[in-house]
Amino acid sequence: MEKKLNEFSVGERGVVVRIEGEGQVYRRLLDMGITPGAEIVLRKLAPLGDPVEVTLRGYELTLRKAEAASVVMRSEGMAAAPASSAKEAKKAAKQAEKAAKRAAKQAAREGKR
Amino acid sequence: MIRFALAGNPNCGKTTLFNALTGSTAHVGNWPGVTVDKREGVYKKLSEPAEIVDLPGIYSLSPYTPEEVISRNYILDEKPDCVINIVDATNLERNLYLTTQLMEIDVPLVVALNMMDAVKKSGDRLDAAKLEKALGVPVVEISALKNEGIQELMERAYAASKTPRAGSTVLAGSSIAHVIDDVKIALRGKEVENPLFHAVKLAEGDELEVAAHPDEMKMVGEFKTQHSDDIFGGDFEALVADARYKYISANFSGALVHSQKKERGALSKSDKADRVLTNRWAAIPIFVAILFFVFHLTFGEDLFYLNAIFGFGFDVETGNAYLDAFVAVFFNGAGISTPGAILFNLTDFIMNTCLGGWIADGMAATGAAAWAQGLVNDGIWGGVAGVMSFVPQVLVLFLFLSILEDSGYMARVAFILDRIFRRFGVSGRAFIPMIMGFGCSVPAVVNTRTLADDKERIMTTRVIPFFTCGAKAPILAAICGAIAAEYTGVSADLLVFALYLFGMIMAIVMLLFMRQTSMRGEVPPFIMELPAYHAPQFRSLMIHLWDKLKHYVKKACTIIVASSIVIWFLSHFAWDWSYLEDELMNRSILADIGNFLLWICTPMGFGLQLSEFGWVFVVAAVTGLIAKENVISTFYVLVAAIGAGVAGGVGDDGENGIGAVVTLMQQTGITWQGLIAFCVFNMLTVPCFAAAAVVKGETPKGKFKFTLAFWMLTSYVTSTCIYLMFSWPWTVAIVVVLIAAVIAFFILRNKGIIRFRRKRKELPAAKE
Predict the structure, then answer these.
(1) Of B141, B168, B195, which residue is a domain's last?
(2) I need a labelling partner for B707 at 20 to 30 A (CA). Which of B176, B194, B701, B747 fits?
(3) Residues B138, B157: one domain?
(4) Which one, of B57, B60, B80, B70, lies nearest residue B31 by Cα?
(5) Which residues in B lie closer than 8 A to residue A61 (C-beta atoms)?
């Protein structure tokens, strides 16, 4: 299903099909790596809802919805698992991390002695 | 001397490498014919010294932004012996995109894989040897930050510079390889340098190239008519970009092996910080709070308002004047000093209480003539000390701004505020140079070069001075401090903050005004990389501050001293060149000049309505056009004389800027309304010579006179309105009616006569 990048919702992943337009903005989009076949994830919206933040080619880029509207995408659904389960998983990971750090610190202290 | 040019994406660590290479010899130099400052320095650890040129950061060699054109022309025309392409190894694909373009130029090229330490830390592996084979140019792993691999890089660059290199392209396998080849041969036949580069750019339809090689462009045009492609049609610009990225993914990305532990969706530290700082609800309040604390910690007298809240205001008395003054540096009746205030008090203590006193005593002991004592104490030392005592405070402000810049937060600010700034006619990106303007207008104006749109750039350079710079800060600090000292219930740092805010509001109002009048047009696009956050580097912060400090000391020892001496002479000599005692200053040349100009400033509240020493303000405002520090140094020089001239004078030798203004208030009878108008005038008027010159350099030819007129009119009209409205509240009605009339005119025009898609609600909201 073809869909424009500005119509993506937060967390949605897709592949660039083509870019419409010409001139400077068009060229900048190309230069920044938005070329057909590139994979893009919409990361978040700015506080006032407009510029969007996307991840592509391993880095983060921000562009306005107006510019995103010229990028035609093929959506591949949500990138990450929905928030609730992800959050829980993260919490668990954090606790484990903390415990590991504590253990490491203790070990270091003992080592010093 | 051989020359190496550093090229690479913005934020890939070029400047870090540059500093690592050149050490303390780094300096900013202007190049003839180009209006930019490329940095240059010397690397000495090779068999012959190498000149290093730091080019502006670019993503591509497209013809659209000035920096890209500058870098491109530098490499093509100045022909460095070797180009060192710095590649951020943590962001390989996009960085190599520029590399594939640089490869097409016939110049020795070495790729420096920077930030290898970060790559290794994340557990990824990057095979430099594999990449070198695929690229066909030397690849060296370095970490500019940790100073690793730099000597090897320079040795390989040195070796590479000895053998000429013909350009190579990654487009050889693409469907337009044929036409590129043909054009290249045609260009070579005409003995054009870098035929491959020009051939590719012609195929892309690059504006600059099409004009330069019309014949070859015809070849491309013919080929285009025969060419057909499912995806791109005849759009070679997209085809070329796509081919580059495809080639990179296919051939180079294999050199990078991701570690197992990096799973999809795993959050890095940077992501976590970002979650909070660009949170949908918290982002804007956090930004406002950060700005407020920066100014509070720099200018506040009462740390975190602890004194106002808990009220432990008392003075420490030790019985020793010096010790008392020293204690007051950290703590006084107003509360515990903030870091900025501590530094300010400390330097003020050293410069005025200690050194200034000793110099005066020393001069008196030698029995020098009265005029010589006056010249040294008031003319030279007074002016310089006045400026220098504010330097540490300004450095604190710079430190905070550098931290914001270095950490990557500034880019987020642009992201957060773009929506708001778009309403004012500029992109969020334009806000970064504006914030930098709080430090100094000069680098801020240079920074506008990263804005792609001409109108946006002109508008931004015009309003940057409204963001009160470090040199104007002392004016605000001194005047607000004096008002707070004379009127109860006024908080100095809140007043300073309000004036800062007023400057920002004026910038917004004037942006809107320009968008409605001389600078009509569409809002420029906003496409920007958001770099990963990282902790600011202590070393780079210190380098930054050291540069600033040097800049200030140099300025104080040259322009400020010279101006102070001139002011002192003019204020102590009459037209017949006879020396005047301090008491007789009103008969001096300067007084006459000031009095002559007095009528101009009358509507602003510091003109004819003042009593005898009123001309001091006019003189200060005029000297401020040379350097804004001069406003304060002029006060120092002149108030020293006034203080001596008044029987039982208050701030005899003006202990500090605040004391000087208090003396002036008492002597001239200037009202607080007049003082505020004076502040506003200095904030909004033509900035210092240095800033005005840079703005002139960055403005298209013939436009600068409008910028000058803009500054003068804005400052004059605004401070007149401020003075009138505060002095006679009923005038508010007139001003409001006038503003409403202007807004109504714009709305009517936008609605009726000219069809223009613009929401009419925008204006009144911002005009307040």
Answers:
(1) B168
(2) B747
(3) yes
(4) B70
(5) 527-530
Distance CA B259, CA B254 (A): 13
Per-residue pLDDT tens over the stretch B445-488 = 877 877 767 888 889 999 999 998 888 888 888 888 888 888 87
- Across the interface, do A46 and B529 touch by the CB < 8 Å criterion? no
Of B264, B452, B531, the CB nearest to A24: B452
Name the region of B489 (left: φ>0; alpha: ψ -120 to 50; beta: rest). left
Contact in structure between A16 and A71 (CB atoms under 8 Å):
yes
Residue B283 C-alpha, separation from nearest chain A C-alpha, in angstroms: 7
- Which of B114, B144, B168 marks a domain boundary? B168
Chain B contact present for A11, CB below 8 A: no
Interface of B with A in 253-312 (CB under 8 A): 264-265, 267, 278-281, 283-284
Structural domain including B203 reads 171-257
Residue B335 within a domain: no
The candidate with the shortest Cα–Cα distance to B479, out of B602, B657, B719, is B657
Phi-psi bin for B408: left (phi > 0), alpha (psi -120 to 50), beta? Answer: left
Please give the Cα distance from A101 to A66 (Å, whole number): 46
Query: Cβ–Cβ of A57/B265 closer than 8 Å?
Result: no
Residue A92: count other Cβ atoms within 10 Å of its Cβ: 10
Q: Are residues B14 and B162 in the same domain?
A: yes
Match 């106002």 to its residue by tokens: B308
Task: Name the superfamily (CATH) of residues A2-78.
Answer: Ferrous iron transport protein A (FeoA) (2.30.30.90)
User: Does residue B31 contact residue B58 with C-beta atoms inside 8 Å?
Assistant: no
Tokens representing B760 are: 């009419």
- Put simply, the answer to whether B418 touches A64 (Cβ < 8 Å) is yes
Q: Report domain extents, chain A.
A: 2-78, 81-113
CATH number at residue B250: 1.10.287
Residue in B71, B171, B419, B456 to test binding to A, most A beta-carbons within 10 Å: B419
* CB contacts, 8 Å: A46 with chain B: 278, 280, 283, 415-416, 418-419
Look at B452 and A45 and tell me if their CB atoms are within 8 Å. no
Residue with tokens 């710095």: B86
Q: Token match 């100009």: residue? A: B597
Say yes or no for a CB contact (<8 Å) between B530 and A18: no
B714-737 pLDDT, tens digit each: 999 999 999 999 888 888 888 888
Looking at this predicted complex, what is its ipTM? 0.74
Q: What is the pLDDT of residues B274-301, one digit of tens each?
A: 888 888 888 889 988 888 888 778 766 6
Q: How far is B464 from chain A (nearest CA, A)?
A: 24
Return the amino acid letter for B412. Answer: R
Interchain proximity A63–B527, CB inside 8 Å: yes
A&B contacts, CB < 8 Å: 128
CATH number, position B13: 3.40.50.300
Residues B163, B14, single domain; the answer is yes
Q: B323 vs chain A: nearest CA distance in angstroms?
A: 44
CA B296 to chain centre: 21
Q: For residues B455 and B521, is the Cβ–Cβ distance under 8 A?
A: yes
CA B18 from chain center: how many Å?
20
Q: How far apart are CA B122 and CA B106, in angstroms?
A: 36
Q: What is the pLDDT of residue B654?
A: 38
Indicate yes or no: CB of B245 within 8 angstroms of CB of A81.
Answer: no
Domain count, chain B: 2
Look up residue B599 and give its two tokens: 């009528």
